[in-house]
Design a protein that fits this description.
- The protein contains eight helices and 13 strands.
- By secondary structure, it is α/β, with parallel strands linked by helices.
- It folds into three domains: 2-92, Winged helix-like DNA-binding domain superfamily/Winged helix DNA-binding domain (Arc Repressor Mutant, subunit A, Orthogonal Bundle); 99-167 and 266-292, Periplasmic binding protein-like II (D-Maltodextrin-Binding Protein, domain 2), CATH 3.40.190; 171-263, 3-Layer(aba) Sandwich (D-Maltodextrin-Binding Protein, domain 2), CATH 3.40.190.10.
- The chain has a five-stranded mixed sheet, with helices on one face.
- Helix 2 (16-28) crosses helix 3 (31-38).
- It is globular and about 60 Å long.
Length: 297
């Protein structure tokens, strides 16, 4: 009985906030970026990690000056909390008067679709949509930071996520104004294999493996955010490839070029498969109806 009391006590000392921040740190593998993602200072994040490690009695990360790598215990906690925290959020929402749905996106959200989803959802449910940008592969859904997300590209499949395809979009190449391809009006997909790529590691939709083996482009550098990625393209560090909708938010030092035969990029709605937001089904129905309309947003 005494052992049960001790176990119960240390469980109560673990704060949800510390667990959420640990998940961000595990995803970013970098204290400064994780602190920015959590919207706290780096010392605050460091103290949070120390509290969590002290409560659990184990080291969760191995630290260097800037880089973070998870220990075995850290990997286990990350895997477990990635699925459990969204369930906790759902349980809390079920008894809360709040009807806000956090809709995530990475760096590009089709404006027409966004307006339609927000308007129709709020009229149909009486709830509210809060747009949240997260530079992560699932725009915060996998870590519990968002309740659903509209994404370009197919996220990793698994039993944690429900993935609903809304359609596809053409891709365009992005190059700096001084790049040799900048004067072209149209390219072919195979041509890009002769030019080094700038790859958005977390939220991008294109990598060298999309070309046939033996005819793949080299990677000039990889980036972790769209903002870093587009600046490297503008600086002529390499060629980028992204959805055609990017033309609606152009960078002044980047030229966007049509690709005649590029594989289309899927547009999907993602939300947790288990313990989703109570209004997630409404959002899914509205999104599917919008996708099926002629001249959809």
């Amino acid at each position: 009985m005494h052992g049960c009391h001790v176990l119960y006590t240390w469980r109560m000392n673990v704060e949800l906030r510390d667990l959420r921040w640990f998940l961000v740190l595990a995803e970013e593998e970098h204290f400064s970026r994780a602190a920015a993602g959590c919207r706290v200072s780096q010392p605050t994040l460091t103290r949070s990690l120390a509290r969590l490690e002290a409560a659990l009695g184990v080291r969760l990360v191995d630290r260097t000056t800037r880089k973070v790598s998870l220990t075995e215990a850290g990997h286990r906690l990350h895997a477990e909390m990635g699925s459990l925290l969204p369930q906790v959020d759902s349980a809390l929402r079920s008894v809360s008067s709040q009807r806000t749905l956090r809709l995530g996106f990475t760096w590009l959200l089709p404006s027409g679709l966004a307006r339609h989803l927000i308007t129709e959802f709020e009229q149909a449910t009486g709830g509210r949509v809060e747009l949240v940008r997260r530079d992560e592969r699932t725009a915060g859904v996998a870590t519990g930071h968002t309740d659903a997300a509209v994404l370009y590209g197919m996220p990793p499949s698994g039993d944690r996520l429900r993935i609903v395809e809304l359609g596809t979009e053409e891709r365009v190449a992005a190059v700096g104004l001084r790049h040799p391809l900048a004067r072209r009006r149209r390219l072919h997909w195979a041509e890009l294999a002769d030019h080094a790529l700038v790859v958005n590691k977390l939220s991008g939709t294109v990598g060298p493996t999309m070309w046939p083996a033996g005819a793949r482009p080299e990677v000039a550098l990889t980036c972790r955010t769209y903002d870093e990625w587009i600046e490297m393209v503008a600086a002529d560090r390499g060629v980028g490839v992204l959805p055609e909708s990017a033309r609606t938010h152009p960078h002044p030092d980047v030229r966007y070029i049509a690709i005649a035969d590029a594989p289309p990029v899927p547009l999907v709605l993602v939300h947790p498969a288990r313990a989703p937001h109570p209004l997630a089904d409404h959002l899914e129905r509205i999104a599917l109806a919008a996708a099926e309309r002629p001249g959809r947003p």
